[in-house]
């Protein structure tokens, strides 16, 4: 017996569907790339009710945004003790002549920037205490975004 | 990250010699000196459990991305009956060893320690051996222990040390 697809000369996994899937994954990628950028969030925050915003933010559990990692406070070499070492690479900080050590917010655990940057690109938790480093993120300030009354319709 | 493994290798030997709290870890080290990605460990069964007096072998495989990825750790196949361990393959159900619960601050020695603690603290709510888990859930500890002992004495690769 022939199948439905054969009788009607169609193919369920046809070209149309593939194209649609491509587009969907493109949009998905775009959203992932820009999902954490402040501008997009600010724009989105105007049209999405606050209750939904929280849910959306929680969805982005994959890693920390680059600017977050870049903005981590550096630890001055004079504040490092001789025995202190990075718990990711197990290397003593002072072994390096110019150690680049950062401190995570809230839990204040220290790591080599190089080591923790790779980890935070995939995770949002402190390797030592599992504190969610993004959970204390300041609220998005929507007051600074000007809403144009005419939505830019009249040029 | 092989430098981290080399550091662990150096420290493990020191810790095992000096720290009495790891006395149940009989050995932990790479299978051969030229390849640091495969390690073996031998642990003693915890006291006051049915595993007491038996030795168990753990096979550890470390990926290139370690310590950003957890190591793959199994017991030797057909060696240990436990509700969170698959008897046939030696696979271990321990959240720590899954990517989403792993932290690069853990090292191989502490993974082995966590597995040792799992032996004394079975978690019947996420079982790989359903029979043993059912007995624990029914609080029939004597039946559970009897079944574990039966397996340990029958098909076990572990041997009584005394």
TrEMBL record, chain A:
Membrane topology per record: Single-pass membrane protein
Q: Which residues form the RING-type domain?
A: 86-130
Give yes or no: UniProt keyword Transferase: yes
Give the main localization category. membrane
Instruction: Enumerate the subcellular locations listed in this protein's record, separating them with semicolons.
Output: Membrane
What one GO molecular function would you report for this record?
A: zinc ion binding
The pathway that the record names for this protein is: Protein modification; protein ubiquitination
One GO cellular component this record assigns the protein to is: membrane
The alphabetized UniProt keywords are:
Membrane, Metal-binding, Transferase, Transmembrane, Transmembrane helix, Ubl conjugation pathway, Zinc, Zinc-finger
The record lists the membrane-crossing segments as: none
Pfam families tied to this protein: zf-RING_2
**PANTHER family per UniProt:** E3 UBIQUITIN-PROTEIN LIGASE RNF13-LIKE, RING-H2 FINGER PROTEIN ATL47-RELATED
This protein is called what? Answer: LADA_0H06590g1_1
UniProtKB/TrEMBL annotation, chain B:
The yes or no answer to whether the keyword Nucleotide-binding is present is yes
Annotated GO CC locations:
peroxisome
Output the Gene Ontology terms for molecular function.
ATP binding; ubiquitin-protein transferase activity
Q: Which UniProt keywords apply?
A: ATP-binding, Nucleotide-binding, Transferase, Ubl conjugation pathway
PROSITE patterns in the record: UBC_1, UBC_2
Active site positions:
93 (glycyl thioester intermediate)
Output the SUPFAM superfamilies linked to this UniProt entry: UBC-like
Q: Which residues form the UBC core domain?
A: 1-157
Q: Which PANTHER family match?
A: UBIQUITIN-CONJUGATING ENZYME E2 (PTHR24067)
* Protein name per UniProt: LADA_0B04390g1_1
Q: Which organism is it from?
A: Lachancea dasiensis
């Amino acid at each position: 017996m022939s199948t439905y697809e054969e009788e009607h000369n169609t193919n369920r996994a046809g070209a149309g569907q593939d194209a649609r899937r491509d587009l969907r994954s493109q949009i998905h990628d775009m959203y992932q790339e820009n999902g954490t950028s402040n501008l997009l969030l600010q724009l989105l925050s105007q049209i999405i009710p606050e209750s939904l915003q929280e849910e959306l933010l929680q969805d982005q559990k994959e890693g920390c945004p680059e600017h977050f990692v870049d903005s981590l406070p550096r630890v001055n070499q004079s504040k490092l003790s001789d025995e202190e070492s990075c718990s990711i690479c197990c290397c003593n900080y002072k072994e390096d002549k110019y150690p680049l050590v950062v401190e995570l917010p809230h839990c204040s655990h220290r790591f080599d920037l190089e080591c923790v940057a790779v980890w935070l690109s995939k995770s949002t938790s402190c390797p030592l205490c599992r504190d969610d480093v993004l959970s204390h993120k300041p609220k998005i300030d929507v007051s600074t975004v000007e809403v144009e009354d005419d939505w830019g319709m009249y040029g | 990250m092989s430098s981290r493994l080399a550091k662990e290798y150096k420290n493990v030997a020191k810790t095992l010699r000096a720290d009495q709290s790891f006395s149940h870890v009989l050995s932990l080290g790479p299978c051969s000196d030229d390849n640091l990605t495969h390690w073996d460990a031998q642990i003693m069964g915890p006291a006051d459990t049915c595993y007491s007096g038996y030795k168990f072998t753990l096979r550890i495989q470390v990926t290139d991305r370690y310590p950003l990825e957890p190591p793959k750790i199994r017991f030797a196949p057909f060696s240990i009956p436990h509700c969170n361990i698959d008897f046939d393959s030696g696979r271990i159900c321990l959240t720590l060893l899954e990517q989403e619960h792993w932290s690069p601050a853990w090292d191989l020695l502490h993974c082995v320690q966590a597995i040792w603690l799992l032996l004394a603290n079975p978690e019947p709510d996420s079982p790989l051996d359903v029979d043993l888990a059912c007995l624990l859930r029914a609080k029939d500890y004597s039946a559970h222990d009897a079944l574990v002992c039966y397996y340990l004495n029958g098909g076990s690769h572990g041997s009584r040390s005394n």
